[in-house]
Amino acid sequence: MARVPAVATTSAVAAEAARRRTFAVISHPDAGKSTITEALALHAQVIGEAGAVHGKAGRRGVVSDWMAMEQQRGISITSAVLQFAYRDLVINLLDTPGHADFSEDTYRVLTAVDCAVMLLDAAKGLEPQTLKLFEVCRARRIPVITFINKWDRPGNEPLALLDEIEQRINLRPTPITWPVGIAGQFHGVVDRRTGDMTAFHRTPGGATAAIEERLDPAEAARRHGADWQRAVEELDLLTLTGADHDQDAFTAATTTPVLFGAAVANSGVRQLLDVLATHAPAPQARPDLTGRPRPVDAPFAGFVFKIQANMNKAHRDQVAFVRVCSGRFTRGMTVSHAPTGRPFATKYAQQMFGADRETIDEAYPGDVIGLVNATALRIGDTLYDDPPVTFPPLPSFAPEHFAVLRAADAGAFKRFRRGVEQLDAEGVVQVLRSDRRGDQAPVLAAVGPMQFEVATARLETEFGVTTRLEHLPYRATRRTDRGGEEALRGVTGAEVLVRARDGALLALFTDDWRMRAISDRHRGLTLDPLLATS
Ligand code: G4P
User: Pfam families attached here (predicted)?
Assistant: First the structure.
């Protein structure tokens, strides 16, 4: 990485920002996120090793070990970052936990990226978790690149997959590459810009980057006859319908460049990196609370998008992950904490997590830093170097799991209350209350059930309170108002609770059917969807 002078000039900061690409993969479990992460790293010069975070237990010997629960399950509970160099760029890949550890953190990661790669299994197309994550991208206007994976296995027709994307999520696909050979008989891809074919020759076990061979159209036709002919015809169709990449439409998040590949064989992964490098946006000026953009070369500013506690059993502590939005961050600098106006020393700034921690000296817009023992920091807080700035608070996402929490020992109520407040402030879970339920029995609400386990484990270890959870049967959530609260009082299968964090009134229903029936009965009832509600 190029070094900049001790005092970075604004143009040096702008140049560093311009070579950052910060993105996340959005996908459904098993589509191949871990595999493609490893494949991307293989093509790149890894700056920080995050295999421990991205890999799965037992795979290539990578197991993250910071929490007993995580160890038992062999999954990572929170998101981390893989940083690597590609060409002259610095790429930051933020992990979006899926599987059983899907949680509000997964959504929040998307507040800290400039682009997303939507990874689809060729045989399955758009799946539920992908759709939820995509809705967050859409709401935040995050440009999305689509990678259709597992082309080495039987799957859908490529045109049918494009149609599904266009019809179901109203995003216009503009393929950059096109497969030669149907799913299951993958010979390579056509590069639509040059018309040449890149043939993939698989290396045993996919341990190294796929061997690529460039074929001109005549040679591709000679070797792949009917498959080549079919690809050419499909490409003609695409060209006729104007499905061509348009940079403005892509950055406005109305179109999606599409690539085909097989992450397990590393096929098509280099092409994905090239599209990220060439088309994905570099960090842009981020608007503050009043909508005024903070230029990337302004003095340092960033916001906390994730807090992770108890990462290291040996020294129980807490790490706040900050996305750098402007300026140059140097370790040890003292910045200001926007909510309190207090100075904040960043002596222990780290990057990359997993089993290892690595101290960083500097970071630029697009990078993520971890601040250790930053107990004063909360999700969404802004840190800055003068002039002051406050970025907008992070959104709360629609919870889908609900449970009443009680202290097992009534004598521990004070600690119980303090602990619940702390977990709410950190965004570990959402805390909902009502007069009827009272202070002793708040309702915890979560995007994924793992959030409950983290909450109860932390109440026990940090606050010494054993708790009991009683799961509630609610599945659908809407935002409502005082009128809704009145109308739903005493209605079976529904309940209105106040979210402690922001005072929002949330109407909970046992299922979508009941919600529709109730809203049909009570005309004029305000029921607004929350972000990422299924
Ligand atoms: P995830 O993180 O999105 O959950 O998916 P992961 O990468 O773990 O991949 C899920 C399964 O799909 C794995 O198989 C993986 O090898 C396989 N896979 C990923 N990419 C491709 C691909 O391009 N082609 C094919 N054919 N398979 C792919 P598994 O049997 O669950 O695990 P493993 O024992 O093979 O590692």
Answer: EF-G_D2, GTP_EFTU, RF3_C
